[in-house]
Amino acid sequence: MMEEHIEEKKQAKGNKIRILDKDTINKIAAGEVIERPASVVKELIDNSIDAGATDIRIEIEKGGKSSILIRDNGCGMSREDALLAYKKHATSKLTRIEDLNTISTMGFRGEALSSITAVAKVEILTRPPEEITGTRIVIQGGKVLETSDAGTAPGTSVHVKDLFYNTPARQKYLKSDRTELAHITDTITQLALANPEISFTLLSEGKPVVRNSGSSDPFKSIVNLLGPDTARSMLPLEYRTEDFEILGYISKPETTRRESDQIFLFVNTRPVTSRAINKAIREGYYTKIPKERYPVAVLSLIVDPGEVDVNVHPRKAEVRFSREKELGDAVTFAIEKVLSENTLAPEIRDKRDRTFQKTFKVSDSSGILQVSEAAETFGRKNAGKDIGIPDTGLPDRGKVVKDKSETYVYPVKDTERRLKRSERLLDLTAEGEAQEISGDKKLDIKTEQEREREREKEGESEKRIT
Q1: What are phi and psi of 378, to 5 degrees?
Q2: Pairing, β 297-303 against β 263-267
Q3: CA–CA distance, 268 with 72 (Å, rounded to integer)
Q4: How confident is the model at residue 141 (pLDDT cuts 50, 70, 90)?
Q5: For strand 199-204 and strand 55-61, is the pairing parallel, antiparallel, or unpaired?
Q6: Domain ranges across the chain
């Protein structure tokens, strides 16, 4: 009675400060953690990684706004754990505050699943490998609607439908399906590069978008996710000090980007962003790349968990280092060392599909114009000899044609025209020579006949005298 009386007096005075109801609190908290469909994908994949999954499959529809389905083959959950997992601040990764200083898991706050279930319709299917029957739970708006046994494979499957269905303002400001898909693709690319041993598959409307089979070699993930052209220009980096370990790959100075969105930084396998480390990476290249250009880098920093504060950002995207200056200097030195040890001359790439052109030359022996076809293609043989630049020790990516100064290659039509003209000239010359020969012969015959006539006259005159 006393408490009711005090409450009535407060309302009568018109107090402006009041405690929010639980549903409103959950929606506000969810807005800090879940910004868009990509946030849902990241939080659920973090849970799959912490569950020890080696194969994670993501299926989305309409950019994740309509449906997000994530399956893994991790350790799964019992029914009791599944009924606790969606509640706020329920986690299996922390037991006391001191554990924050040595945190090694992707998640630790117990906010992700509760935030997702507060703003979406969620169905959870899960089964530990040691149990025969799995559990199915349907949650909507933070309330459990159905719990039942279900047959399912070992692991966990979380199906999120109609994201932000109960917060129209947030749903209204989501971008187009293509834009949201791009954000999801970037998120999965980061997580796949950070965990190359895990197989990731992303399907959009049933069509594959990202597919990276698990491998112990990080370079294979770079080839699959960033493309072979980018991977071909990457240099391995490995640097260790007493306090830090820096592993990964950096691009040659010839491969740069306008933005720093292809600098992938991982701290103890956690994808993070750090302006200080990005600046250190840029300083490692110094004047080797143009101003306001950024390299491609995939760097994993192994640091003592006690030296890193991961509880800075609601989405755990930013971290703070206790010795940020020393770590930045180590990154800069490691990059400078790798670049100084490798040949940085840009490679000459092959240019295929060049057309054949006709060339002509005059044979010294016959004096006749001869036509030949020469392929002006990089790396091919010309007249039985290799034409190219001298060996400089660079990888053989194809040789550059070096035109001879004394040989001029005419276009095809011009060559044929010149060839016909030359043949006509040769024919005329041959006819002239034949005419000269026949004229000389006639002159010789005429001279011989005159001589015989003179001899006959001399013979007749001698007879008359006798």
Answers
A1: -60, 135
A2: parallel
A3: 22
A4: confident
A5: parallel
A6: 22-220, 227-341, 356-420
CB 296 within 8 A of CB 226: yes
Task: Please answer whether residues 194 and 225 qualify as being in contact, where contact means their C-beta atoms are separated by less than 8 angstroms.
Answer: no
CB atoms within 10 A of CB 311: 13
CB atoms within 10 A of CB 301: 24
CATH for 227-341? 3.30.230.10
User: Residue 138 is encoded by which pair of tokens?
Assistant: 């349907």
Q: Where residue 54 falls among pLDDT bands split at 50, 70, 90?
A: very high
Distance from C-alpha of 332 to C-alpha of 250, rounded to nearest angstrom = 12
Whether residue 128 contacts residue 152, with contact meaning beta carbons closer than 8 Å, is answered with: no
Least confident of 25-39, 267-281, 326-340: 25-39
Q: What is the mean pLDDT of the chain?
A: 78
Find which of 106-115, 188-197, 315-324 is predicted with most confidence, using mean pLDDT.
188-197
Q: What is the CATH number of domain 22-220?
A: 3.30.565.10
What's the rounded Cα separation, in Å, for the pair 77 and 126? Answer: 6
CB 253 within 8 A of CB 339: yes
Around 178, how many Cα atoms within 13 Å sit in the side-chain half-sphere? 0
Q: Does pLDDT of 352 surpass 80?
A: no
Helix (H/G/I), strand (E/B), else coil: 317: coil
Q: How far apart are CA 200 and CA 191, in angstroms?
A: 9
Residues 6 or more apart whose Cβ sits within 8 Å of residue 402: 387, 388, 389
pLDDT at residue 262 tops 70: yes
| Cα–Cα dist 455/157, whole Å | 129
Task: Please tell me the predicted confidence (pLDDT) of residue 368.
Answer: 47
- Of the ranges 50-54, 58-62, 189-193, 418-422, which one carries the lowest mean pLDDT score? 418-422
Query: What is the C-alpha to C-alpha distance for residues 284 and 297, in angstroms, rounded to an integer?
Result: 12
Measure the CA–CA gap between 148 and 83, rounded to whole angstroms. Answer: 11
> Is residue 107 a contact partner of residue 50, using CB atoms and an 8 Å limit?
yes
Question: 67-72 and 55-61: which strand pairing?
Answer: antiparallel
Structure tokens of 332?
Answer: 């800069």
pTM of the model: 0.69
**Amino acid identity, residue 454?**
E
Q: What is the pLDDT of residues 430-449, one digit of tens each?
A: 666 555 555 555 555 656 66
CA 226/CA 210 separation, integer angstroms:
11
Would you say 265 and 274 are in contact if contact means Cβ atoms under 8 Å apart?
A: yes
Separation between Cα atoms, residue 154 and residue 132, nearest integer Å: 9
